[in-house]
Design brief:
Structural class: alpha+beta
Strand order of the largest sheet: 11-7-8-9-13-5-4-15
CATH architecture of the largest domain: Distorted Sandwich
Strand content: 25-35%
Number of helices: 3
Shape: elongated
CATH superfamily of the largest domain: Glucose Permease (Domain IIA)
Helix content: 10-25%
């Protein structure tokens, strides 16, 4: 049995919400109040339902992280849609293991660091907005790639990919930052995908179809 740690301070509220969601929540609540004052009951009820859903979408629960040295943890909640070896890509020099996690609009969308290390590069690429579960989304959609190096010199690249609905990728870390496993680092709004590129010798712990939770589920062990 492994020990666990908290990479971030616990939230002071019972239902923490990511700060990126506040503008959407305030706009929805404001519209709901206006509809209610105008006695537009149907629109007010729709607005109320939308407000609750937006709060639910931007929820940001605290997570405890498996506290053992070699673990690579999931950077996102969602479903594993691919997991296996690939050749050299623009995100990782040489052969590697690529894991893709698809997030539906019902998943928590806060992203977390998969392994402690030193952030080497943060690279943003504008692009298209194909459905995030398609293979071409990795290449053609808007995305943001974060590459870090572990203490042992191993490279891990996490790529935030916008989806069909998503139109905003948020990344709060910069080149040169020292980051902890499980630390919050960003968010993608309204349905998206994360690809993780790992060293080829990793001991993989997940398969296609598995459902994972950011900061808690182990993707594999570095060897």
């Amino acid at each position: 049995m492994h020990n666990f740690s908290r990479p971030d301070s616990p939230s002071p509220t019972a239902f923490p919400v990511a700060s990126a969601g506040y503008p959407f929540i305030f706009a929805s609540v404001f519209a709901t109040v206006v509809f209610a004052l105008l006695e537009l009951t149907t629109l007010a009820l729709i607005g109320l339902a939308a407000s609750f859903f937006i709060c639910y979408f931007f929820r940001d629960p605290d997570r405890v992280v498996p506290n053992f040295k070699d673990a690579v943890i999931a950077p996102a909640d969602g479903k594993i849609i691919s997991a296996g070896p690939v050749g050299s890509s623009r995100f990782y020099e040489g052969s590697c293991i690529k894991i893709s996690i698809f997030m539906s609009i019902f998943n928590v969308h806060v992203n977390r660091i998969p392994h402690e290390g030193h952030v080497k590069t943060v690279s943003y690429y504008p692009g298209k907005f194909f459905s995030a579960n398609l293979d071409k989304a990795s290449r053609q959609n808007e995305h943001n790639a974060v590459t870090l190096e572990t203490e042992e010199g191993k490279k891990i690249c996490t790529v935030q990919i916008a989806g069909l609905i998503a139109r905003r990728i948020i990344c709060k870390i910069q080149e040169g930052d020292i980051v902890a496993r499980g630390q919050r680092f960003g968010l993608i709004c309204f349905g998206s995908r994360l690809d993780v590129y790992l060293p080829p010798d990793i001991n993989l712990k997940v398969t296609v179809g598995d459902r994972v939770k950011a900061g808690t589920s182990v993707l594999g062990d570095l060897t």
